[in-house]
Design a protein that fits this description.
This protein is mostly helical and 514 residues long. The chain has a single domain, classed as Up-down Bundle (Growth Hormone, Chain: A). Helix content is 74%, strand content 1%. The chain has a two-stranded antiparallel ribbon. The longest helix is centred in the last third of the chain and has 33 residues. The two termini are 43 Å apart. The structure holds beta-D-glucopyranose (BGC).
Length: 514
């Protein structure tokens, strides 16, 4: 892209850079990592509502589903079926804990490659599955792939991005996730119409396509300047920085990268450091933001939209079509965040999105409650079912420009370098743990809590919205080194931040303490 940009924000370093085609292309390819996560998120809901798949692996669920007199809320309740969906997230949680070492020692691209490779093998296991064991092994391998990708790709994007557009580039990861979800639901829509076992095999097997894309992408991608410096390739790092910034005048940014690398080498125990009182705001935020993101209930829609729509009385084809529509709406609405997050700020999006989700969840719960009642044996007419789909779309839109992208962006931008790796690992693993829990418990919860399930998530949306209102200061346009100023000025967090931490960045603090 033409034109040079110089930062105008007070206190931000005036790095000189152009938005080069190279940085776009590398970040575009880098974002493929989000695709594999998204494809997986989107494919399992559709597959678990395909009759031949259920008949083959989950005959009990299939029988229940066929039984028209069964309680609507419990049609799909099966521990094994949810284990199929959620096993992936336990694997991703575990792999994300050690992926950070590979990312650091061998570079970001090799973590991405490994992620693509294990994902590829997993897709083969799933596509050719003959029994439940093969299905679960496949899911676990896919999970390892997702853990590696989610650990390395956001870091890769942030390091490659021009500093003042880091927020928008970071949101690109979420755009890729949702794109993967949408492609998966479109594929499900067509494969669900195929006779016999071929449909679900194609759906699960096609996961190999994004896997190959990320593998090839990782091989051709350059490594980030930060990673090159970290591994001792200082001269190559400078050349890389010059080529992605489109200028030879990168001395200031380059020096900052060198300083940051020196600093991080001096911090021997990031896990111990993050427990110090002065990092309490970051510790609490990196635990609570991913927790709350999952407690919005979004993955009930992501995983089980087709199942949910069938529960509402839609036919299998109409259910998949509705899931496709909600996915496309989520994709479009994520761009709202990309274009506004640096202008309106994080808090406005969090609060607005929270209120929108709250209202729509209460309306969905109330409508389902009135129509199905507590026994779950009532009927939902066509127009009411359509109204519920519309409410689900409003809910999804609210998530798409708030907790979706910000759930990844905010934890990654609030931590100073000396604790960033530990904070990122906490963020990914808390996210995966609660993704697992929601995936594992949703069908049982729907069966027992019935329409109250929507009120359950609405309750958490109230808590998280109040939490953001009271506890999260605005971080837009604040450089990470200046973040302590924001925490210090906060009515609650201020007391945790030592006075001397405010007037100096991490680098100066480090020098002072040496
Ligand atoms: C969340 C996922 C979710 C996805 C799509 C991501 O930010 O972490 O759990 O499935 O958005 O909604």
């Amino acid at each position: 892209m033409a034109g040079g940009f110089v930062s105008q924000t007070p206190g931000v370093r005036n790095y000189n850079y152009k938005l080069t085609p190279k940085v776009f292309v590398t970040c575009f390819i880098g974002a493929f990592g989000g695709l594999i996560f998204g494809y997986d998120l989107g494919i399992s809901g559709g597959v678990t509502s395909m009759e031949p798949f259920l008949e083959e692996f989950f005959p009990d669920v299939y029988k229940k589903m066929k039984n028209a007199h069964e309680n609507e809320y419990c049609r799909f309740d099966s521990e094994l079926l949810t284990l199929f969906t959620s096993s992936l997230y336990v694997a991703a949680l575990i792999s994300s804990l050690f992926a950070s070492t590979i990312t650091r020692v061998f570079g970001r691209k090799w973590s991405m490659f490994l992620g693509g490779f294990t994902f590829f093998i997993g897709s083969a296991f799933n596509g050719f599955a003959q029994n439940i064991a093969m299905l679960l092994i496949g899911r676990i391998l896919l999970g390892f792939g997702v853990g590696f990708a989610n650990q390395s790709v956001p870091v890769y994007l942030s390091e490659m991005a021009p500093p003042n557009l880091r927020g928008a580039f970071n949101n690109g990861f979420q755009v890729a996730i949702i794109f993967g979800i949408v492609v998966a639901t479109i594929i499900n829509y067509f494969t669900a119409q195929m006779k016999g076992n071929i449909g679900w095999r194609i759906s699960l097997g096609l996961a190999c396509v994004p896997a190959v894309m990320i593998m090839i992408g990782a091989l051709i991608l350059p490594d980030t300047p930060n990673s090159l410096i970290e591994r001792g390739y200082t001269e190559e790092a400078k050349q890389m920085l010059q080529s992605i910034r489109g200028t030879n005048e990168v001395d200031e940014e380059f020096q900052d990268l060198i300083d940051a690398s020196e600093e991080s080498k001096q911090v021997k125990h990031p896990w111990k450091n993050i427990l110090l009182p002065r990092y309490r705001p970051q510790l609490i935020m990196t635990c609570f933001i991913p927790f709350f993101q999952q407690l919005t209930g979004i993955n009930v829609i992501t995983f089980y939209a087709p199942v949910l729509f069938q529960t509402l009385g839609f036919g299998s084809k109409a259910s998949l079509l509705s899931a496709m529509v909600t996915g496309i709406i989520e994709l479009l609405c994520t761009f709202v965040s990309v274009f506004t997050v640096d202008r309106f700020g994080r808090r406005v999006l969090f609060l607005q999105g929270g209120i929108q989700m709250l209202i729509s969840q209460i309306a969905i719960g109330a409508m389902i409650g009135v129509k199905f009642g507590v026994a779950g044996t009532g009927n939902i007419g066509k127009s009411d079912a359509n109204a519920i789909v519309a409410l689900i779309c409003i809910y999804v839109a609210g998530f798409a420009w708030s907790w979706g992208p910000l759930g990844w962006l905010v934890p990654s931008e609030i931590s100073p370098l000396e604790i960033r790796s530990a904070a990122q690992a906490i963020n990914v693993s808390v996210n995966m743990f609660f993704t697992f829990l929601v995936a594992q418990l949703f069908l049982t919860m729907l069966c027992h809590m019935k329409f109250g399930l929507f009120f359950f998530f609405a309750f958490f949306v109230v808590i998280m919205t109040v939490f953001i209102y009271l506890m999260l200061p605005e971080t837009k346009n604040v450089p990470i080194e200046e973040m302590n100023r924001v925490w210090k000025a906060h009515w609650f967090w201020g007391k945790f931040i030592p006075d001397e931490a405010v007037n100096m960045g991490a680098a100066e603090m480090q020098q002072k303490s040496v």
